[in-house]
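Quick one, tokens below:
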């Protein structure tokens, strides 16, 4: 009996020792998990700061580019207008005494004005649209559609579904330019008489579909417009699909990187 009791006691002590080892291992595992959670939290915070830093750099870069373009427009327009004013002054002097030379001078002034307009339009195309400075994105898009319909003679139907009320500035710029380019291509290349535009939000992304009833094309070639559109979308992590079937269709998906509120409009 004494031997059995001693064996039982040793067995219990061994079991207790194993339990202590298991408890110690569990404590170490919990501590490791706690450290891992802390590290993950720090990593998420660092990623958030990095994203904010990247957005700040992008914004500063955009401001710098806008300032450069503003200077370019100022210089281009100032140069053209200076030459035109000087030329018109000369024409006023020579109008009666040398009509032939005056006519030739007016032709040169016209060419100067045309070149200046081309340069200004090229630069202005890269600046933030004036409508976005004054209106919300939805209001700006509705105005863009109305104005294009009146000037180009194209029926434009634009619909919004669960459309976010607020966007980051870079998101709004890209969306506006994409819709603008889509309507322009439908009229210029597709000779369309109707353009349908749908903008649908689902909380985490925005889907845009632009479809026209134009002539379409058998083989779609990505020209400057589509290429430029693709570059804009890549800055936001968006995607672009397009195809031609009874007209031309653009399908755009843009991830929205922050919470949004549905528009009340």
């Amino acid at each position: 009996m004494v031997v059995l009791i001693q064996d039982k006691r040793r067995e219990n002590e061994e079991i207790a020792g194993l339990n202590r080892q298991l408890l110690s291992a569990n404590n170490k595992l919990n501590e490791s998990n706690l450290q891992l959670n802390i590290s993950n939290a720090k990593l998420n915070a660092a990623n958030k700061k990095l994203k904010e830093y990247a957005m700040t750099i992008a914004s500063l870069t955009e401001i710098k580019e806008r300032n450069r373009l503003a200077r370019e427009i100022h210089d281009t327009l100032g140069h053209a207008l200076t030459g035109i004013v000087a030329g018109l002054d000369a024409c006023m002097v020579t109008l009666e005494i040398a009509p032939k030379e005056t006519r030739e001078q007016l032709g040169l002034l016209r060419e100067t004005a045309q070149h200046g307009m081309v340069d200004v339009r090229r630069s202005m195309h890269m600046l933030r649209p004036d409508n976005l400075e004054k209106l919300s994105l939805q209001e700006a898009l509705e105005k863009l559609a109305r104005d294009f319909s009146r000037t180009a003679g194209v029926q434009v139907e634009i619909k919004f579904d669960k459309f976010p009320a607020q966007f980051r500035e870079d998101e709004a710029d890209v969306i506006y330019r994409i819709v603008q380019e889509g309507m322009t291509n439908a009229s210029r290349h597709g000779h369309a008489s109707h353009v349908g535009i749908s903008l649908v939000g689902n909380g985490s992304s925005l889907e845009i579909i632009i479809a026209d009833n134009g002539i379409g094309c058998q083989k779609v070639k990505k020209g400057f417009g589509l290429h430029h559109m693709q570059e804009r979308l890549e800055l936001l992590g968006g995607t672009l699909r397009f195809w031609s079937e009874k007209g031309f269709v653009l399908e755009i998906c843009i991830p929205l990187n922050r919470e949004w509120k549905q528009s009340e409009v």
